[in-house]
Amino acid sequence: MIVKKFKHLPSLVVVLAGLNSTSVFAQESHQIKGTIFSQDYGANKKPLANATVAIQNIGLSTTTDHNGNFSFSAIPAGQLKINVSYVGRVTSDTVVFFSGKVPHLEFVLRATNFRLQEADVTAKNENSYNGTSSLISRNALDHLQANSLADVMALLPGGTVSNQDLTGSKQINIRNVVGSNSNANAFGTGIVLNGAPMNNNANLQTISATVAGNTAPLAGGANPSGGFDTRLLAVDHIESIEIIRGVPSVEHGDITNGLVIVKTQAGQAPFRINAKTNPNVYQLSLSKGLLLGKDAGALNIALDYAKNTNDPVQSYLSYQRFNANSQYSNSFFDKRLRTNSTLSVLFGKDTRRQNPDDAVTMKASNGRDLGLSFNTEGNLSFTAKWLKNINYVANIAYTNKTAFAQEQQTSATAPYSMTKEDGTVLTNKPGMPIYDVDGHLLNPQSLTLTDHYAHYLPSTYLGMYNIYGKEFSTFLKAKATFFNNIGNTQNKWSIGADYRINKNFGKGTVFSPTAPPYRNLSYVNSTYRPRAFQDIPAFNQFGAYAENQFSMDLGERQLAIAAGIRYDVFSTNKQALSPRINLNYELVPRTLNFRAAYGKLAKGPSLLYLYPQAAYFEYININEMADSYLAEEERIFMTTTRSFETKNTNLNIASNERIEIGTDLFLGKKKFSITAFRDHLRNGYAMGLTQNSFKPVSYMEYKRTGDNSKPIYEVAANNPVLAKYNMPTNNRQINTKGVEIDFSLGRFENIRTEFALNGAWIRNESYSNDYHYFDDNSTTGGAGRTHIALYDPNISRSYEQSMTSTLTTTHNIPKIGFVVTLRTQVIWNESNWNTFGNDSIPIKYISKFDGKVYDFDPAQSENPEFKPLMRNIDRLNAIRESFSPLLSFHINISKEIADLGRISFFANNMFRHYQIASSQRVKGYYYKRNVPYYFGMELSFKL
């Protein structure tokens, strides 16, 4: 038998077929026993109870008894990859090779602190069955002084340092260009907390996106078209984070990008008090892990409170967070069943108090998230010949979201009527009939809907709006793992399924009809209506998958393949098939590896895209409100309300095709990794214009005639117009390619210093595969409305590119628990530009007369009817905006205080260097580049 420590396990999995001989599956079984010890710096080792021991390549796991002992039975001969972990201890990964009798194994887990020989304060690059990934330990989180999951992205290849504040929503982008905060990237990034996904799928906290023109949240928090707001999750009780940048296992669904796997602390841990401060944030957290008695399990309790002031000179802008978590873990049935159950409360609140000096806009807002979730996960191990474990996860979550915003509107005159029914005609005098010169009744609904009326909004009013959301989600998952040797191959088979529900039971959008939200002038005649979220159906998704992790020795070289397939069915009668494979082959044994991966990822739409609000329009038929020759009580105001369904029944499932190739070079403790990747996102979700989002309307306007004592109205104008609104679309297409490097040079003992270099070159191409719709020359009046020009879908493509590198130099003195890290970050290139196709002549147009699409004849470009469809050509963005290299330095210092605790300090952009760069597009415009100088400290005590 050979026992060998390892840090870089190859990925494995492949589906094998056609092997049906029973003799092939014969395998010899053995029993393995061992003891786990804990050892602190300068102290003797002690047996460690309740440590988790897992044979990862087989799928078995157990926990140690009170004497630190563990045992496994029915273990086949061959290679075993043993993982030993415990809260607050450095995880041990070991490879064991044996073919006969196995001696008693021993593992020693050291405390996670800054007295380790290797400080472990950087992201560790791994190439596992789950694809290219980075592992971030508790030490790295403490040293970084992260306040949200978004802060740790600075440790990844291509990541750049950002200040650790809680200002604005913090969503996660993986493999994105520097400085770009993409909702599409974040929406497709999965976050898994203790086995269950955290998502943004039921978020509807925005004023109607169909006519608002965007999906911005009303009063802060996560954008409904983006990713989960990571500010809600406190970092201090997290044990580890794995960020999968490559092709993840088919076990993970509902993603089109990377995956962030978060595990919180479970097990006995000392009482710890953490306090952080920086120019924006004050934060305090408490945590304790209690053993409840013999075989009674452990209870972990964690509390966290943080307050962020967006700007010290603008104290009326703030954010508050509160987390409370209780986590119970235990083992049953002779250590065969391990369970971990968590009850969590999450609270976050963005506040904008009214500035006392602001008497003009009177802006104020607050957005509050209050969430309660229960999560339980478990692993049941078996000693059967093939079946090794069954894993399950069950999660139920409820989040009550409220948003309030007020603003004094000016130049706000517009019609508003109290109806949602299409074609309803109302006046400012309910019950009063209005006739035309032919005796036709113009407002029949006003005679029956006597409590409904139309009115003309004043030029100035204080608008107040509320959105009440009640987001509910459920996630259920079960997976069975099998293992067997087939000839000289090892096979770990998994089959599983998951089911998820997302629903919103909220009261929805609420506002007074006398003070509605300000109209969007780009969507002429559009208006807003309240909406109840509880009327929106739930969205369900069922997924099933099968996977095999396969490895075999080819001489002295090892081949490892992970292959699987996932099938998802959505309640919209759509399906997605996602094959994925990761391959790792040793070109030179234990020295040089080749890696390759391919996979399809799919994510269903959120409620925002599945069930958009109808689009409403208000057309003024009669407006006598400014006619001074009439007595005020005699003036008539009449409108027609039009309502259009905006649901896209042909909405497809967004998918991403990802390809990776890479290589790893091992020279002793040094590792050099290079990875090239390409992403091809198709059918990305967006709220935008389509050929179906323009509807023809006859805009009738009347004027008074005859005797004023009995007003009669005749037609003053009848103009054909097009009502324009947004719909959910799949027109977003994004191509991303890049190269990542991750070099770990190890620790040089003579100078007590280790070096790590990572970086990335990334280029992003984004465009719409739909037409470009143009009506910029259309007026607000009915007579000046134009057709809608349809320009070539290739009218424009946007490009962003960046190349970055970060050299991390870590000096530590284990004896005194001192670590100092200097990050030398260089943004070698940051640029953006557009390319243009046919942007001068439309190829089709939508007629305002009937709403149909017709081919455009270029010979008609000077025709007065069609001349407004000609764009003014502006190719300013074709000029490449590119910046010279930008250098910045960032320092982190941590020091253990005896056995009592720790003090940490950081300074971002420590030399306060700012680059002033001139724009190549706009002469005389300059950019001030670099992250603002920022500093902070943390005190941590354990009792």
N-end to C-end Cα span:
42 Å
Structural class: mainly beta
Mean pLDDT: 91
What are the low-pLDDT stretches, counting only 5+ consecutive residues below 50?
1-26
Radius of gyration: 32 Å
Describe the main β-sheet briefly: 22 strands, antiparallel, barrel
Question: What general outline do the C-alpha atoms trace?
Answer: elongated
Give a quick rundown of the structure:
This protein has about 950 residues and is an all-beta fold.
Please describe the structure with a list of short key phrases separated by commas or semicolons.
mainly beta, six-stranded mixed β-sheet, 943 residues, disordered N terminus, 5 helices, 22-stranded antiparallel beta barrel, 54 strands
Describe the structure.
- The chain is an all-beta fold.
- Helices cover 3% and strands 54% of the residues.
- The protein has a 22-stranded antiparallel beta barrel.
- β7 and β8 (92-98) form a beta hairpin.
- The protein is elongated.
- The model is unreliable at 1-26 (pLDDT under 50).
SSE diagram, text form:
Layout: E1 2-5, E2 29-39, E3 46-47, E4 52-55, E5 60-63, E6 69-76, E7 78-85, E8 92-98, E9 105-110, E10 124-128, E11 131-136, H1 138-144, H2 183-187, E12 190-193, E13 196-198, H3 209-212, E14 238-244, E15 259-264, E16 269-277, E17 281-291, E18 298-311, E19 314-332, E20 337-352, E21 364-381, E22 387-409, E23 415-417, E24 425-427, E25 435-436, H4 444-448, E26 454-456, E27 461-486, E28 489-504, E29 508-511, E30 526-527, E31 539-554, E32 557-570, E33 575-588, E34 592-603, H5 607-610, E35 615-623, E36 637-644, E37 654-667, E38 670-688, E39 694-705, E40 712-724, E41 727-748, E42 753-768, E43 772-774, E44 788-791, E45 796-813, E46 818-836, E47 844-846, E48 853-855, E49 881-883, E50 886-897, E51 901-908, E52 915-918, E53 926-929, E54 934-942
Parallel strand pairs: 2-9, 12-15, 25-40
Antiparallel strand pairs: 1-8, 2-3, 2-6, 4-5, 4-7, 7-8, 10-11, 11-14, 12-13, 14-15, 16-17, 16-54, 17-18, 18-19, 19-20, 20-21, 21-22, 22-27, 23-26, 24-36, 27-28, 27-29, 28-31, 30-35, 31-32, 32-33, 33-34, 34-37, 35-36, 37-38, 38-41, 39-40, 41-42, 42-45, 43-44, 44-47, 45-46, 46-49, 46-50, 47-48, ...
